[in-house]
Amino acid sequence: MKNIISDETMEYVGILAKLELSPEEKEHAKQDMGRMLDYIEKLNELDTTGVEPMSHVFPVVNVFREDVVCNTDKTEEILKNAPGVKNGMFKVPRTVE
Amino acid sequence: MAKVYETVIGLEVHVELATKTKIFCACSTEFGGSPNSHTCPVCTGMPGSLPVLNKKVLEYAIAVGLATNCDITRYSKFDRKNYFYPDNPQNYQISQLYLPICRDGFVEIETENTSKKIRIHEIHMEEDAGKLIHDEWENCSLVDYNRSGVPLIEIVSEPDMSSAEEVITYLEKLRLIIQYLGASDCKLQEGSMRADVNLSVREVGAKEFGTRTEMKNLNSFKAIARAIEAERARQIELLEEGKEVIQETRRWDDNKEYSYAMRSKEDAMDYRYFPEPDLVPMMISEELLNDIKANQPELRTEKQKRYKEEFDIPEYDIDILTSSKHLADLFEETVAICKAPKKVSNWLMVETLRLMKEEEMEAEDLKFSAENLAKLISLTDEKAINSTVAKEVFQELFHHNIDPVVYVDEKGLRTVNDEGELRRVIEQIVNDNPKSVEDYLGGKEKAIGFLVGQTMKQMKGKANPDLINQFLKEELLKKA
Ligand SMILES: [Zn+2]
Question: What does the domain layout of chain B look like in residue ranges?
């Protein structure tokens, strides 16, 4: 394996993804991520000079909606997906700012 | 020798677009709905939901770009900006990083001393977040997603401004352009226009920029000016003490006139942008560009020109009337009803501006309707009320948008046109004030003013001043 994931990188990725991993899980993840990067690196072997970077695989552009209100009040149904409800709002753990 | 510093300011301006629906779903953008009543699986980030771009958003963004001399990106796309925060239900915001819709524009501003170009780096489209309320009772947060997915454009300037005056002039110019385009009402207080100020200081002549901070939560032009002054002073003080300015986001508290750091360096944001796979790219054709240009509403300079040709009012008045889209609309709508441009302009230029200043209001916040202003003007035209009463009625109109006809009748303010009564009152006044009569007849023409005042007082303000003058003179001549 060419790509070795450091403990710091693992820690940082965990913070960004809001994941708490056990020491064993971290080791596993490090191995997996290293292998993934190795695999992706294979692409670097290709000569891509003059090839436009591609962001979308479908040859489709300009899919639009007209500016017309179609949705009706579905508060009750929407709130069924909330982790908790209070006063018609999604109740979530306290967020600091 | 003391060091001399200059301020370098760039602005990020968020503008909420005046569409009926959200940017990626058919939910209403209307204000005031009960919490989460304007939501759907798309704008609450439910798995499997798919966004579809509102064409009007693209058109408004392009229109603003054209009006600010930008190049329109012919192949544009959306990107995901990843971050966790409960007001953002998808855990990413759909925005534009790599190919923003507009680039490399400028706005020309004139301040007292100079005129200069403020370059626009880019304008991109993105979605707004929901509203977070902290619940002290249960120590939790509550989220209303009605604002989630409301379309925004972010206008990013180059760091071309060097004072609060320039910043405010730039913002006013930008606001005027966008209001005239009908793309947004741009109300700072209500948050439909939000400006974040990036500011750094450096010694005059220095080549490198100093470290900048970003200031948020600026809800009025006054707050922006105060925040700029305070941040400039804070940074200079740090440098003078030999300390460093830390690159950070700060939140302005306008009551305390102080800002504090919002996030520490440790959790500096790493947004991991990548192309939004759920939205296909936009290819802007010549045809669409021409369409947008053709449908562009009348902008300020065109309006000024038309006013000059159509209405017989001074250039100064035209400047003021067109300085706000709302004021110009109010003027035109009222003139359309009462066909008296000079009178309408007078009410707007004198009493309206005076009360606006008194109340520290902006033209956008004016509440009274064209219909009611036109009614007030006809009441004075018909001499149903005199000018003093008219001003009194206008106060009510300005504050409460009352129907002047109903108001005047309810309060019994109509001018008394009973000539017999007026003559009786005047006869009495003339007899009761021999000193003034003598003065007047002795050549002091001003003495008549006192007698007019007395008569008006006796008539409880409801007399026609022309008639008073006429009858008084007749009565006085009898005494000569
Ligand atoms: Zn929706």
Answer: 5-287, 298-411, 419-479
SS3 of residue B157 by DSSP: strand
Interface pTM (ipTM) of the complex? Answer: 0.89
Q: Structural domain of residue A38, as residue ranges?
A: 7-44
DSSP per-residue string spanning A47-86: --TTPPP-S-SS-----EE-S-------HHHHHTTSSSEE
Q: In sequence order, what DSSP letters do the residues of B196-261 get, joined into one string?
A: EEEEEEEETT-SS----EEEE---SHHHHHHHHHHHHHHHHHHHHTT------EEEEETTTTEEEE
Q: Which amino acid is at A68?
A: V
Alpha-carbon span B83 to B92, nearest angstrom? 6
CATH number at residue A19: 1.10.20
Q: Which chain B residue is nearest to residue A90, measuring alpha carbons?
A: B143
Residue of B nearest to A17 (CA): B84
C-alpha distances in Å from residue B299, one per residue of B182, B321, B332, B444: 10, 13, 14, 54
- What's this model's pTM, rounded to 2 decimal places? 0.82
With respect to CATH, is domain B419-479 assigned 1.10.10.410?
Answer: yes
> Strands A89-93 and B213-216, how do they pair?
unpaired
Q: Number of structural domains, chain A?
A: 1
With CB atoms and an 8 Å threshold, state whether B54 touches A65: yes
The residues that bridge with B141 in the sheet, in sequence order, are A92, B134
Query: Among the residues of B339-464, which ranges form H helices?
Result: 341-346, 353-359, 370-381, 387-400, 404-410, 419-432, 434-441, 447-458
Give the model confidence (pLDDT) of B245-275 as tens digits.
999 899 999 888 899 888 654 455 789 999 9
Question: Cβ contacts (< 8 Å) between B26 and chain A: which residues?
Answer: 65, 68-71
What is the tens place of the pLDDT at every residue in B374-433?
999 999 998 888 888 899 999 999 999 999 999 988 888 887 767 778 888 888 888 888
> Residue holding tokens 């209070």?
A86
Q: How far apart are CA B344 and CA B317, in angstroms?
A: 11
Contacts of A55 in chain B (CB under 8 A): 77, 275, 281
Strands B53-54 and B213-216: unpaired
Question: Cα of B420 to ligand 1 centre, how many Å?
Answer: 70
In a domain, A97, yes or no: no
A73 assigned to some structural domain: no
